TrEMBL record:
InterPro entries hit by this protein: HTH_MarR-typ, MarR/SlyA-like, WH-like_DNA-bd_sf, WH_DNA-bd_sf
Residue spans crossing the bilayer: none
Keywords: DNA-binding
Residue span, HTH marR-type domain: 1-137
Entry GO MF terms: DNA binding; DNA-binding transcription factor activity
Protein name: MarR family transcriptional regulator
Pfam families in the record: MarR_2
Protein's GO biological process: response to stress
Keyword match Disulfide bond: no
Source superkingdom: Bacteria
Length: 140
């Protein structure tokens, strides 16, 4: 059984690394990393959103998200605003340039993912997602 668990763990790591590299390759033309994309994607879906909430959703610590956010602001993709109700909170939203770039990136990400999952049915992906969620739950 140990060899089976070793094989599952090894294959999982290999696939995760290849998927990350594939996504990174697709994002290179936009000068955006997968980590930056995860922040842009969340902000696009939830804006205006606090930095703390972004960190929770992308499962990264606050200092990491702060660095990513600063880079994205310098690239004119994100805008920061102080929350009118609580001045301690910084709210993030996409800039006009960010909105345009996110749509282009989303198309590439969807194309990349459809390549990753070619020949796999939605039902199979659902089972896979369920198994991954259970493994993640066991890890917590």
């Amino acid at each position: 059984m140990r060899d089976f668990y070793d094989d599952v763990t090894f294959r999982t790591n290999v696939v995760a690394r290849k998927a990350s590299l594939g996504l990174q390759h697709g994002l290179e033309r936009f000068a955006v990393t997968p980590e930056q994309w995860s922040v842009l994607n969340v902000v696009d879906q939830k804006a205006p959103i606090s930095q703390r909430h972004v960190a929770e959703l992308v499962e990264k610590d606050a200092p990491t998200v702060n660095r990513i956010m600063d880079v994205l602001v310098r690239k004119n993709l994100l805008e920061k605003a102080v929350d009118k109700k609580d001045r301690r909170i910084t709210l993030l939203s996409l800039s006009m340039e960010g909105k345009q770039k996110v749509q282009l990136i989303r198309n590439v990400v969807e194309e990349t993912c459809s390549h990753f999952y070619r020949g796999i049915s939605d039902t199979e992906l659902g089972v896979y997602l369920n198994v991954l969620a259970r493994i993640e739950n066991n890890l917590e």
